[in-house]
Amino acid sequence: MSEQTTSVQEAQKFGESTELDTPVDSIEAPGEASELQDSDAEVDAPESDEFVPMTDDELVSTLEALLLVVDTPISAAALASILAQPLVRVAEALQRISEILTDRTSGIDLRETADGWRMYTRAQYAPYVEKLLLDGARSKLTRAALETLAVVAYRQPVTRSRVSAVRGVNVDAVMRTLLMRGLIAEAGTDDDSGAVMFRTTELFLERLGLTSLSDLPDIAPLLPGIDVIDDLTENLSDEPRFARLNRAPTEAVAPAFTVDQD
Predict the structure, then answer these.
(1) Domain check: are 235 and 155 in the same one?
(2) Contact, 143 vs 171, CB < 8 A?
(3) Single pTM value for the model
(4) Residue 73 CB neighbour total at 10 angstroms
(5) Which residues pair with 172 in a beta bridge?
(6) Torsions phi, psi of 110, nearest 5?
(7) Pairing mode, if any, of strands 196-200 and 184-189?
(8) CATH number of the domain encompassing residue 193
(9) Which end of the chain, N or C, is more open, meaning fewer C-beta atoms within 10 Å of its C-beta?
(10) Cα 146 to Cα 46, 143, 179, 183, 208, distances in angstroms
(11) What is the pLDDT of residues 86-109, one digit of tens each?
């Protein structure tokens, strides 16, 4: 038996560790650990091939388009992900757009908040913006809208078809206007038909100077009673003027004649 074998056996006998007990794979050469860590870091970093080629002018124009349509502030990281651009480049472009708008005293102000970037109207032009918005909100309702609003107020909650039966016309467009003005709102669905019902809002009472619906004046004598309205509603499907309200949509039929195209 060789001297090396004897020394190994003696070391094992006294519980001493030897180099032969260490796996060969676990032995690291000097500097090898740092190289492995560097390779792991390179996996997490995005590769340059993932970025979409885009000039500076294209990047600025695209950012302006995105910022124009967002309803809430958007972060630079989200914009960089959408555009497939480096975050640093997008952040610099946003800052450059903000500076350009400020230097030329634009009516649009691009600001960064805690939630991200968003376009705002500049404070010095606020009086003109307020005048535009308030004048549009204070414009008078048409006669058709007032009549429709009266039906909803006295018959609420009421479906669109019942309002149409009372007025004798299609009220889809008028109802959309009242919804947009905030004078009426949805109030669930009808148990029988499943149609959406509508009611008046607090803004309606505020505009009329009322504290509650009980303060509404007595119903006009020309307005049909409840029994008449119910009868009209039941026969609504047989009325040619309202047949299209309940008619299933059909495919458009091509015209039998040829239209000249210039």
Answers:
(1) yes
(2) no
(3) 0.39
(4) 17
(5) none
(6) -95, 115
(7) antiparallel
(8) 1.10.10.10
(9) C
(10) 60, 5, 13, 11, 12
(11) 999 999 999 999 999 999 999 999
Asked if pLDDT for residue 83 goes beyond 90, the answer is yes
- Percent of the chain with pLDDT strictly greater than 90: 27
Contacts (Cβ under 8 Å, ≥6 apart) of 181: 137, 141, 203
For the packed helices 160-167 and 172-181, what is the interaxial angle rounded to 10 degrees?
Answer: 120
Determine the structural domain holding residue 110 and report its residue range.
50-124
Is the Cβ–Cβ distance between 156 and 200 less than 8 Å? yes
- Rounded to whole angstroms, the maximal C-alpha distance in the chain is 125
Task: Say if residues 185 and 201 touch (Cβ distance below 8 Å).
Answer: yes
Strand intervals (E) in the chain: 108-112, 117-121, 158-159, 184-189, 196-200
Is 236 a residue whose pLDDT tops 60? no
In a domain, 254, yes or no: no
Distances (CA, A) of 215 to 206, 219, 224: 12, 12, 20
Give a yes or no: residue 40 inside a domain: no
